Amino acid sequence: MPHSFQFALILFGIMGFALFVRPIEKSWITLPIFFAGLGLGLGPAGLGVIDLNIDDSTIHTVAEITLILTLFLDASKIRLRNLKAHYALPTRMLLIGMPLTILMGAAMIMLLAPDLPWAMALLTAAILTPTDAALAQPILADKDVPTRVSEAINVESGLNDGLALPVVVFAALLMANEATSNISLTPLAIGQFVGAQIIFGPLAGIAIGFIGAKLLDMATHHKFTQPIYEGIFFLSVGLAAFFGAESIGGNGFIAAFVAGLTFGNAKKTNHKFITEFLEGESTFLSILTFMIFGAVLAPVGLAHANWTTVLIAVGFLTIVRMVPIAISLFGEKLHFYERFILGWFGPKGLASILFALFVAEQYELPHIDEMLACTVLTVGLSILVHGLSAKPLAHHFEKTMQKVKNK
C-alpha cells in the first residue's frame, strides 16, 4: 500500500484524537495508550493496513528528527539555577539512581541471559533506563501531589535521556567491536572515537546554543523578529547543533541536548511563543513515535519475545527501577508513599523507543532482535501499567498524606 495512504491514515487518527481530546483525557485512555494501540491495530499485527518495516528509511528519518528535537526541547526547559535550591530529589535520582539502574539492569540481563555478550546487556540496560514523564501526566498535573514529587519526576525525565545517550553510544560501539573482525576497532580506536564524540559534541552544543540564545535576545530587543519566526529559529538551533557536531566528529544527539540546555539558560528574554510552539511540536512528535512503536517496533519485538525478555521487562519496571531510586533517596525526609511514587513512576517511553530505532539503524549488531523484544515489552507494559495507575495513585495521594497528618 502506498506510503502516502498509510501516512494519511495516521494523520486521520491524530485528527480524531485532537477533536475528542477532552473526553478521552477524562477516561483511562492516555495519549501513549491511544496511539500505540492505534499503530498496533493498523500495523502487521492487526489489520495490516500499515506495512512499514523497521528498515524503512522514512521511519528512521522521522525517528532521528524526533530524537534530535526531543533532546533539545527537553533540555531547554531545565533551569540550572534552580537545581541546587529546589531539585535535590532529581539530582540524587540522576547522579546516584540512574548509574545504579544501568549497572543493576545490565547485571540482571546477564543473569537471565548468560549467553548474551556483556556489551549488549549494557546497551539494553542503557536503552531501558531513561524515563518518560508523558506517561505520568496525571501525577504531574494533580494538585494533591506535592510539587517536590512532581518536579522530581519531571526533571528526571527531562535530563536522563541526554545523560543515557553517551552510555548507549559507548555500549553500541563495544558491541560492534565484539561482533566484527575489523582490526581497526581496537580499544584505542574506540577510545579515540568515543572521546571525540563526547568532547566535540558538547562543545558544538554549547557554542551553537549560546550564540543562538544571544542572537535571539538581540533580535527581540531590537524588534527585528516576530513570534512565529522565534519558534522556527528555536528548532533550527537544535538541528544546527546536531549537524554542526556531526561535521566535526562529535555526537550530534549529545550536541542537541547540550545546545538545548545552554540555550534555555543563556537567553534573557522571556519568549512565551517558544514555550507554546515547543509543547505543540513535542506532542506531535510523541504521537508519531508511539504510532511507529505500535505499527513497526511492536510486531518485531513480539515476534522475538520469550520468557526471558518478559522477565527483563518486568524487572526494569519494578526492582531495577525502584531499588536504585530507594537507595538514591536514602536520608531524605520523605513519606513511604512519596518514595513509592518516585520509584514506581519511572515509565519507559519516547527515549527508549528512539534509542532502539537509532541503534538498529546505525549499527549492524547480533542479538538486535532480543534488544528490540526487551524494548517493546518494557515500553508496552509501561504504557499500560503506568498509564492505568497514574490517576488512581494521584487521587489516593491526598487520602494517604491526610492520614499521616491526622496521626
From TrEMBL:
Designated name of the protein: NhaP-type Na+/H+ or K+/H+ antiporter
Origin superkingdom: Bacteria
Pfam families in UniProt: Na_H_Exchanger (PF00999)
Compartments, as annotated in UniProt: Cell membrane
Transmembrane segments: 6-24, 31-51, 57-73, 93-112, 118-136, 157-176, 188-211, 232-263, 283-303, 310-329, 341-360, 372-390
Keywords: Antiport, Cell membrane, Ion transport, Membrane, Transmembrane, Transmembrane helix, Transport
Protein's membrane topology: Multi-pass membrane protein
GO molecular function: antiporter activity
GO biological process: proton transmembrane transport
Domain Cation/H+ exchanger transmembrane: 19-394
GO CC, alphabetical: plasma membrane
